[in-house]
Amino acid sequence: QHMPLKRSVHAPPLLAVPANLTPRLLDHALNALHACGGARVVRQVSGACSAAFRQTAALNMTELVVRTLPSPSAAQGPGPDAYKGWLFKWTNYLKGYQRRWFVLSNGLLSYYRTQAEMAHTCRGTITLATVHIEMGDTCHFVLTSGGRSYHLKAYSEGECQRWVSALQQAKANATQMMPHSDDSGDEGPLAQPDRALIQGALKTLASKLEDLNTCNELIGKHGAALQRSLSELEDLRAASDGVDKLKTVNERATLFRITSNAMINACQDFVDLAEAHSRRWQRALQYEREQRHHLEETIEQLAKQHNSLERAWRESPSTHNKGAEGTPEGESSEENEDIEFFDAMEDSPAFITVPAGDHSQHRCLFTIAFSLCLQEGSGCYLRRGRRRRIPDKPNYSLNLWSIMKNCIGKELSKIPMPVNFNEPLSMLQRLTEDLEYSELLDRAARCDSSLEQMCLVAAFSVSSYSTTVHRTGKPFNPLLGETYELDRVEEYGYRSICEQISHHPPAAAHHVISQRGWTLWQEITIDSKFRGKYISIMPLGNIHLKFHASGNHYVWSKVTSTVHNIIVGKLWIDQSGDIIIMNHRNKDKCHLKFSPYSYFSRDVPRKVTGVVMDSEGCAHYILSGTWDDKMESAKIIESSHGSGGSEGKQKTVYQTLPPKLLWKKYPLPENAENMHYFSSLALTLNEPEDGVAPTDSRLRPDQRLMEAGLWDEANAEKQILEERQRLERRKREAQANLALEEGKTEPDPLIPLWFDKRTDTESGESSYVYKGGYWEAKDRQDWSQCPAIF
């Protein structure tokens, strides 16, 4: 006699009332239905009922519907402020406004992607007790809670006004119901939304549990009455009495069935609600367990490192005596230049933590971090060979968007960022890293054909990007006057020197001379812009390469690098643009094209194609490959013109010999993913060396501390260095203004120490080139000209 009806998880019980229901039984049904939160009733009144009963039942059921059914826009759930419906919620710049199903109940505004998600997944919950409601443009309003804003839109102005009114009423009710704590304020303001959310959930669960208790009592009561009726029916002897008793039994069975359905539905509501909150609380509990485990591991690691340093100090009494003997009273033994540092345990990199204080304490940390790179136990090797690893990168989580959201449109070099987004190398060292595949230039120097030489030069220009595919870390901005040298004469036959010649805009000059027949120099200025979703890095300036034997002089520039997914997702890097390599001696030319990545393209990702032409524009070689793997060249033996070009232009078809491999990327070192994805050369760039200039990047304290894993200390040291540089710049500007006011000659600007600005006779370009003197000063160990920038 019941119609099967489907209901939503969050809707109240949906029951069917049989047609033979009497007025007395209907009153009992009303009590049972109201005990479980109200019900929608579907009735079937058959012709067997009397007119009087049909009128009474209709009135009672009308009252039932009026009392239990909310308005069409209101949510059929507990609470006087219940409301639900579709709204448009702002998600991000990629997707804009998206339609979401919102449910307002018990002082909480929850939203879901669909109504079906209400059974298992809540996309977010806003606590109205602490929310700020603000009306925007047409159909638009903003909810602000805990520093986060929710931009919402309704279908119409009327619907928007109804939502705002319901939210304001719910906020007022939630504010009145919030308990006021008498504590002295152990919990901060950030804990209030979470506490209100938990209290609202507990209140809802308690209400559902009370409904279950009421239904349980009713089931017990009506079940006992049904049993009594069945017993009386068995004891009947007269047939006339059986009709009345059978009718009573049928009524009591119907009432029991209605109450049982209400109980089942109330149980399902309670279980669903408990499971939804249980999943959220389990995730929160799992997160706290992981944080606790991470903290325990960190403390254990610190304890090991502390013990290793104490043991090393106790086992070296000679160091104590050396620091104490001959030291006048009142002087610190730390000023003794002969202090030695000893190896730590091999299973953990050693470092020491000192309380926050003056600048000398950071210097102490820098000295210890610098000495750690001399320890065999840390995997670093000095003099016996280049090091093959550095300390693993700490797993510190930091939100890049939280720092850069206020820097849209600014130049990247002017955005102050912590070292958490850096890699422990400076931009000067990154420039030097272009020499990773210097053997390509050694091979090119031995070529007799300038066109074959051009192919190798093109492969070298592409190889400089091979290490950037996983390198999303930002190199340190060099200080003005900072230098970096790389002497690889014994291994690879070249010497390299870089100097930072300008701070704003950041510019560096680089010079490399090789005993194997070539010289390379460049002046690079970095122009970078933050576009919101990505960062564009545009190196300005040309790279010059000259071969000693042939006199061939090649000039080219770099392409644009783009870092994607700044807002959301995993960071990834792409290279795009064109490179034109020109031989100024005979006008040979190579055109390389770096194809930008496209989701809809069928081409190989990171694709590079090119063609090598002579001075008359005749193509001789086709170049192809990817900038993160390899480059190949194929000699053209025949060319023809065919149809199919764009805009009616003819398309040139080349017939070539089988391609030859020009360059292949070296595999990354073992455990590179935990060492900033450094290549074999990059691992050695910051390795300590004797006799370098005091302005060398290896001696930069914040960079050294970051490499050692001391990121907090590195951030503090970085702020000190940057503030000192700003003070020096203001001092020079003040001196220049004072001289101008007094009519005196302006003081000479800070000029580079090792580079001069000259005009190239072949290309006509004016740039900074190496003027000599650095390697001679290193041989004499005369660094008196160098400024004290660190």
TrEMBL record:
GO terms for biological process: lipid transport. One of its GO terms (cellular component) is perinuclear endoplasmic reticulum. Its main location: membrane. Residues 309-335 are annotated as: Disordered. It comes from the Eukaryota. Residues 80-172 form the PH domain. Residues 713-744 form a coiled coil. InterPro entries: OSBP_sf, Oxysterol-bd, Oxysterol-bd_CS, PH-like_dom_sf, PH_domain. This is Oxysterol-binding protein. It comes from Cyprinus carpio carpio.
